[in-house]
Input
Amino acid sequence: NAGVTQTPKFQVLKTGQSMTLQCAQDMNHEYMSWYRQDPGMGLRLIHYSVGAGITDQGEVPNGYNVSRSTTEDFPLRLLSAAPSQTSVYFCASSLQGATVGNTQYFGPGTRLTVL
Amino acid sequence: GIQVEQSPPDLILQEGANSTLRCNFSDSVNNLQWFHQNPWGQLINLFYIPSGTKQNGRLSATTVATERYSLLYISSSQTTDSGVYFCAGGTGNQFYFGTGTSLTVIP
Output
């Protein structure tokens, strides 16, 4: 049971480049989400999904796209990277979101630098 | 969205000391969790505690849901307790995180 995995661990991009951050979980969780962590600002929700084929925006969705074709995978796409997207990105999953009784599990994070 | 305030923002302790971290929410939440982010960046779930009190070894947490706050107690602190402690609360499908308490335990 690997839990929540993320790839890559580190990435450097140039402004305007695109890339996909991968996230996978093997716990059969319905709910998956992406956060970004910036210094002094805690974690902020980018996008989330409550099941395959269903996604929605969080607090800071601009500049990011997501899709959920399977229960296991929830990739995050940066279409045209900007320096403001330099951050540490965390993927998380739980059985059923922020409802009663659900614990969130986090991946190890991806440190992204946009030059 | 829900605003989450954590205090204190920074804390330096001598090994063996006790501490209390606080988390205030601007609105009611159905789901409240405490996390520890270790120096390598990994986020570890400490407690799921929407109400009441729980204990796990030297750590315990209390949430008073009616007053929208939660406390995390660390007793007999150790250097391995260093890191950032976050609380997060949510309703429905969205979680909101505080900005964390950065704890440094000195030997």
